[in-house]
Each structure stands twice: as C-alpha cells, then as structure tokens.
Amino acid sequence: MDHPASKVTAVCLCIIAAFTTIAALKFAQDLLAPVVMALVLGVVLSPLARRLEDLGIPRAFSAGSSLVFAGVALGMIVVLFGPVLSNLLDQIPKIEQQFRGWFSEITRGLRSLGGLSFELERTLSESGEDAVENAVPGILDALWLAPNLLAQILIFSGTLFFFILTRDEIYCFFPQQRRALQTADRAVSFYFTTVTMINMALGLALCAALTVIGLPNPVLWGAAAFLFNFAVYLGPITLVVALAIAGMMTFNSAYALLPPLAFLVLNAVESQFVTPALVGKRLNVNPLAVFLSIIFGLWLWGPLGGIVSLPVLVWVYSAVAAQSKRGHVTAYVSDRVA
C-alpha cells in the first residue's frame, strides 16, 4: 500500500515538471514553434506522401515534393494575404482617429469629473500614437529579425522534410503505440484538410455578403474570416467586433449592424451545421478542452500557437482514444481466450 506522503510527493513533482515544461516551451519559442508547425504540417501531408510511395516513387522524392508543396502553399498565402495585411495596417490610423472622436464625445459628457477626463483622453492619445508607431518595424528591427526569420524557415524546412522521410522509422520506436499514432495522423490530416476547406468557403461567402452590403475591402474581410476561424471561439468573436467597428465607421444608421450580423449568420450555419456534419461525427473533442487549448496556444506562442494548438489537441485525443480502444479490445480477447 502506497504511503500518503509518497503520493503527495509524486503530485508535487508532476506539478513542478508541468510548470518547467511550460517555461521551457515559452523560453524556446523561436526553436520549438517552427518545429511543432512543421510536425503538424507533416502529419497533414503524410497521406499525400504515402500515396506517392504506393505508386513506387522514392521516399526522398515524396518528402521533397511535400516540402515543395508546403513552400508553395505558404508562399501563396504570403502573396495573397500580404496586400491584405498592408491594407489593414493602412486602416489603423483611420480607426485610431475614429476612436479618438468617439472618446472625445464621451469625455464631453463627463466634464463634471473635472480633470480626470482630460488625463484619460491624453493617456489614450499618447498610447494610440505609440501603438501606431510601434506597429510598423523600422529598418534596424527588420535587419535584426531577418536572420532569426531565416533560421526559423530552415528549422521548419528541415523538420518537415526529415519527418516525412523517416516517419515510419520514428513510429517503429513505439511498437505498442504505432497503430494509435497512425490513427491520430489520419485524424489530424482529415481535420485540418476539412476545416481549411470549410474556412475557405466561409471566407468566400462573407466576401460575397459584404460586397452586396457595400462594406469596403470585402476581400480583406473574407481573408480575415478564413484565418480567424482557425482559432475557434476567439477568432469569430474578434471578427464580429472588428466588423461592428468597420460598419459604424462606414454607415451612419442601423445599416452599420449588417456586416457583423452577416458574419454571425454565416458563422452560425458553419459551426452548427456544416462543421458538425463533416467533422463532429469523427472527432468529438470536449469544447472546454478546445477553448482552453486555444487560449494556452495564443498565450504561449501567439497566433501560431493558436493555429497549431487545436491540431495538436486532436492528435493527442485521437492517439489516446485509439490506444484505449486497442487496450479494451486486447483485454476482451484475453478474457475470451481465458
């Protein structure tokens, strides 16, 4: 019988190990973030590489083809969304000016508070100017970031190539869990591919709806919907707020509510009908676990963490479920034989 003190010691050691691991993940972000992103993308591209191998194509060529495909896809995202992000940065001064106007109207109604409103307005003005100035990096910042970015690209490329090249050998180190790991790979590949297509359809639908409504830059908002919807819960909420602000800046009547309402309707159809029909039947992950994983990923590694957190959660969930199912089947067979 275990002594109670030993159980307390084990729990304390687990807590210390968890906090140490989180601190290491936070500290080694520049190294581990591209590695995790490459592993997630490698898992997604594994079915493609496996099909090429089944056709008799050498594994090195299939790994190289997967790397080229990933590079082309990421390059297309940069080319397509680069102007969108640039346009978004150009809108920051306009948004800031609009917020200053709204805040000035509010402070005029709070003159009875004396100098407090003036201090708040001055603080907001100064912080807004600093935010705009810091939003665009200078030349020295760009020169400092260039080698770091190049190193991360090399880490990402090398990890992706060698993972696809040697994934079978890697799984051979875990013979008891090999089938569960392969099942998790298929689940993540199915999830990520399906969600990408759903988000693309959502972005196109929002772009068409905002074009009919007359909101400027509908392509920008469609691209934002495509990207933000990967961050479940938080992304759509952020986009609704942004569309509400854009609507109030563009229209003067209740018509300003149409852009966020249009996205709410489209997102409701996507989240309540489309995604459950295509994904939910095969991957039923607890919503609280999904929400907490995205929050943790955003806190840990920023937007990249928010994107990779859900595929990692799906991978872990699928691997554990497959291993548990395999254990139950083995126990059942053993009982029947006995």
Protein described:
The protein is mostly helical and about 350 residues long. About 85% of the residues lie in helices and about 0% in strands. It has 11 helices and no strands. The protein has helices at about 5-25, 30-55, 60-110, 115-135, 140-170, 180-215, 220-230, 235-250, 260-280, 285-300, 305-335. The radius of gyration is 25 Å and the shape is globular. Residues about 125-135 and about 330-338 have low confidence and may be disordered.
Q: What Rg do the Cα atoms give?
A: 25 Å
C-alpha termini separation: 29 Å
What proportion of the residues is helical, as a percent range?
over 70%
Uncertain residue ranges: 126-137, 329-338
How many individual helices? Answer: 11
Mean pLDDT over all positions: 77
Structural class call reads mainly alpha
Write down the secondary-structure element order: HHHHHHHHHHH
Number of strands: 0
β-sheet strand percentage: under 5%
- Biggest β-sheet, characterized? none
Q: Overall 3D geometry?
A: globular
